[in-house]
Design a protein that fits this description.
This protein has 11 helices and 15 strands. The chain is α/β, with parallel strands linked by helices. Among the domains are: 70 residues, 2-Layer Sandwich (Alpha-Beta Plaits); 164 residues, HUPs (Rossmann fold, 3-Layer(aba) Sandwich), CATH 3.40.50. It is elongated.
């Protein structure tokens, strides 16, 4: 009698493979797991689940049902697209400010909160062997990776306890929150998440004006502001103003028709009866037409939002960013908002956009939209 040979049924993580093995054996199917990382099987990128060829039809049906159940369970725990507020964090930095603003806007938008932390692990080396069916990845420094994972898990636990305490004390609204830990460059992971999950809003921390150095290219917040299609709210470190205290909002306009949609988005985010909007326009030379356009925008929103208080201001470009900071302080502006267009990497490298200039030179919270 010909002996049935073993075949690879699936390549899964070590944990998933163990679950598959248990269920298959409950159904009378002899199953073995071949670890690709024999020293540390739990840290292997993938392991092979192997069965006898004669059991393949029955095993495939069982695994298909298990995979479907896992997928449904994972989807059940996820909020609908556009129904979460994303807070990228370093787990130890500026948690106070971004948490307050993140949970406040999650309450306003009826959304969940997702904390995202990106981290870099030691390099992987690719190895290949004729005795294996796939290329495998071997860690160059297992102990370092273990330490990174352990530290991140401990930080997540500490932050979870801190957030729950703030909720219990009534310092932030009670909203469902979760964590995403991702390996990779922070700005890349933030943008990848936002493209896939389409959160309603991204809230990020930024260094205060007095602590910002000349190395602007390295700012994660600046990169996300420039590249994200999702609205981004940047909060300076040490900001004492509570989110519910936002009242006077300055919106930079270049008289683009899409600015009207962006302004409407700002109003819907804030949802305040006592909101005051200042329409700002920066120009090299003051012209009568600018004032006519600003007055028209003011009338438009006064008609559509009768409770909204509106005014406008014209600033001189040649007086620089210091003049803007002075105006924001004197006018008691709580939030600066603007609508920008996505620019190429080349343009961003050689010429800062208005959003980046504001980020690095103004301490007022900054809301950037791309309508």
């Amino acid at each position: 009698m010909k002996t049935s040979k073993r075949v690879t049924l699936a390549i899964r993580t070590y944990q998933r493979a163990q679950m598959i093995k248990a269920v298959l054996e409950q159904n009378g199917i002899d199953t073995v797991i071949h670890n690709l990382n024999l020293e540390n099987p739990e840290m292997a990128v993938g392991v092979r689940v192997r069965i006898f060829e004669k059991d393949l039809p029955q095993a495939l049906k069982i695994v298909e049902e298990m995979e479907k159940a896992w997928e449904e369970e994972a989807q059940k725990d996820l909020p609908p697209k556009g129904r979460n507020v994303l807070i990228p964090v370093e787990l130890t930095d500026q948690i106070n400010e971004v948490c307050k603003y993140g949970f406040y806007f999650a309450e306003k938008l009826n959304a969940d909160v997702v904390f995202l932390h990106a981290f870099i692990t030691p390099a992987y080396t690719i190895t290949s062997s004729a005795s294996t069916e796939i290329n495998t990845y071997t860690l160059t420094d297992t102990q370092t990776l273990r330490r990174i994972v352990k530290t991140n898990n401990a930080d997540v636990e500490n932050l979870t306890n801190l957030v729950n305490r703030w909720i219990d004390e009534g310092l932030i609204p009670k909203r469902k929150f979760s964590f995403e830990l991702r390996e990779g460059v922070p700005e890349d992971e933030i943008l990848a998440y936002s493209r896939k999950e389409e959160p309603s809003l991204i809230i990020m921390g930024a260094r205060s004006r007095n602590r910002k150095d000349d190395n602007l290219i390295g700012s994660v917040t600046a990169e996300v502001l420039e590249a994200s299609k999702i609205p981004v709210l940047a909060i300076s470190a040490g900001l004492e103003m509570k989110p519910e205290e936002i009242k006077r909002v300055a919106f930079f306009t270049n008289f683009d028709q899409k600015d009207l949609i962006a302004i409407d988005t700002v109003i819907s985010f804030l949802k305040k009866d006592d909101l005051e909007l200042v329409f700002m326009h920066a120009t090299e030379k003051k012209e009568g037409w600018d004032e006519v356009m600003l007055a028209g925008i003011k009338v438009y929103f006064a008609k559509h939002y009768p409770k909204l208080k509106t005014e406008y201001a014209i600033l001189q470009k040649d007086r620089g960013i210091e003049h803007l900071q002075e105006y924001l302080s004197q006018s008691k502006i709580d939030l600066v908002a603007l609508n920008t267009k996505k620019r190429s990497l080349f343009a961003r490298f050689f010429n800062q956009g208005i959003a980046t200039k504001l980020l690095f030179n103004v301490d007022t919270p900054l809301l950037v939209l791309k309508v």
